[in-house]
Design goal:
This protein is α+β, with helices and mostly antiparallel strands. The protein has 19 helices and 17 strands. The strands form five sheets. Strands 1, 2, 5, 6 and 9 form a five-stranded antiparallel beta sheet that branches.
Amino acid sequence: MMKQINLLIGLLLFSTQLFSQILEPVKWSFDSRQNGREVELVFKATIEETWHLYDTSLPDGGPVPTSVNFNDSSLFEFAGELKKIPQPTEKYDETFMMDLRYFSTKAELVQTIRLKSDDPVVISGFVEFMCCDDETCLPPTEVDFEFEFNAGEKTGDIQSGVQQESVKVLTDRGKEGSTETLWLFFFFSFLAGLAAILTPCVFPMIPMTVSFFMKSGESKAKSIFHAVVYGLSIIAIYTIVGTLVAVLFGPDAANFISTHWLPNVLFFIIFVLFAFSFFGMFEIVLPGWLVNKSDQQVDKGGLVGSFFMALTLVLVSFSCTGPIVGAILVESAGGAVLKPIIGMFGFALAFALPFTLFALFPGWLSNLPKSGGWLNSVKVVLGFLELALGLKFLSVADQTYHWGILDREVYLALWIVIFSLLGFYLLGKLKFAHDSELKFISVPRLMLAMASFAFVVYLTPGMFGAPLKAISGYLPPQTTHDFDLHKIIRDEMKLVNATAGAGTFNGASELCETPKYSEFLHLPHGLEGYFDYEQGMACAKASNKPVFIDFTGHGCVNCREMEANVWSDPRVLERLKNEFIIIALYVDDKTKLSEDEWVTSTYDGKVKKTLGKKYADFQISRFGVNAQPYYVLLDTNEALLAAPKAYDLNPDNFVRFLDEAIKKFHDK
C-alpha cells in the first residue's frame, strides 16, 4: 500500500512541477577504469550553484549521507576505502543546526574493487544522496548505475529522475549533532562529577591523596607535576570508558535502546539498585583482586605510579561513583557516539579538579570541612534522585507496549512520595543505616528541604489533570490520566454546547469513522484525530480539510514539551480543532500489524511489521527526516501546504505555520 502511496505522491508532485520547475540540482555520471581484475568505479556528481551534496558520513539526526549501494557484492571484493575528491567542506548548517560536511560544484567518489573471476560480470546498484541549498532541502533520492566488465567496458551516464517537492528540513534540537544539547549534557555531567566528590568514598581521599604527593620526598615542582598527571589520568580513565560505550553501542542501537522494553526495563532496575546502594542496603564494589593489583603498581612511583594511583582511586570509589557514572552512561547510550564521551569527560573533569587544585595549593586543605555524616546524606539524596529518574525508563516501555502499569497519576504519585520522603529526610525525620545523629538542621539542608516540598506542592495539582508544563517532557502523556478534571470540564462543555445546538469543534461527531488504534493511542487537550495515514487522508478528502501530520513517539521528550507548551496555546488549539484533520503517526509504537498491512521499505528494502516501523519508514522515505517532533501540513492531494516544522517552543511561530497552510489551502 505504501509503495502505491509513494508512487501517487510522486506523480502528483511531478504534475504540479511540470508548469513550474523540476528540481534537479545534482546530476550523476558513472565511469570505470579497469586493470585486470582490479577496477576503479567512479561516481561523478555535478552540483548546481548554491546547492550542496552531503558527505558520505554525517552525525545522527541530520540529513541522509551520500552512499554507494551494490545489489550483489558477492561478485567482487572491496580493495580500499571510498575515496572522495575533493575533500568535503565542513560548516555549521543553519537548517539542521549542526556541523555538516558537504560538496559544492562537483564531487567524485572512487571505489576500488577486485573482481573474483575473469568471467563477464555486471555490477549494479544505486547511489543514494540528499542535497540542499540555503533555503530548501530535497528528500533523499536514488540513482541507479550499472557497469559491465570482461565483456567490453561500459561507461554509464545516468541523471537523477524527478524529485519530490522541495521541503525545508528542520530537525529535533535534542539529537546527537546538536551542539546546544551536547553542551547541556556536558554541564550536567560536570555537576554529577562535583556531586561524586561529596560522597563518603571520595571526599576523605582528597587530603590523603594530596598529602601523598606533597610528602613523597620529591621537590615541590615535581610533586605538583605528578599530581597534575594524576588528575589527567583520572580524566583519561573515565573518558576511555565513555569511548568504549560509544563504540560498543554505536549509532545503529539508538532505536532499540530508546524504545524496546528490554533495555528500558533493565535501565529502570539498574537505577533502582543504584538507589538502594546509596540508601545503604548494600555496596556495589569491584573484585578485590582488581583493586589490589592496581594498588601494587602505585609503589613504582613516577608517572606510572601516578596513573595507577588514579586507577586505584577510580576502583576504590566505585561504590559511590558507580551509580552516578552508570546513570550518565545510561542517559547517553541511546546509540549516540559523542554523547557518552562528552558525558564522561565532563564527569571526570569535575571529579579530578579538586585533587589537582589542592595539590597546587595545599594550603587550601585546612579550609576543607571535616568528614562526617553529611557525606552519607549526600549519597542518600542522590539515591532519591536516582529512584525518581529511573521511573522514566519504565514509563517509556510502558507507553510503547501499552502495558498500562504506569499511567500519569501513578507516575506522579510515586514522584510525590519520593520527593516528600526526601524532604522529611533532609529535616531529619528519616534515618538510614549509615546516617549519623542529626543534632540540628543546617541552613543549606533546610533550603533543600524547602525546595523538595515546594516541588511536591507543584506536582500535586497534576493528580487532578494540571499540565505541569515545566516537566511535561518527563511525564507520561496526559491522555493516560484516569481522573483528568480538565477533560471532565471540557466534556461537560461539549455536552452543553451540543444540547444548545451551538455546534461542536472537531469532536467525535466530525470524524468520518472511529479511528484505528484509538483504544490505546490518544491526542492531547481533548483533540480528536487519526493514527493511521490512509484513514486520516480519506477523511480529509471526504470533509475537504487540510491535514496536520504529527510525527511523534511515546519516548519523545520534545514531543511532550511541544504539546504542553505550544499545542495548549488557545490560538493553536482553535486552529487544530476547527481547521485540520489531525493524523498522529507514532514512529516507536510496537503494535504488530496484520500481514496485509506490512510495508516493504523503499528506503532500506526491509519489511516493516509494526505500526512504529511503518511510519518511521514513511517519514524517512517521504520527507527525508527521522527526528521527532516533525509536523507536516498537506492538502487533500497530499501536496505540501507549508515547509514542515520541527521543535519550536514559540507559539507565535506555530500559529504562523498553521495560518500559512490554511490560507494556501483555501486559495486553491
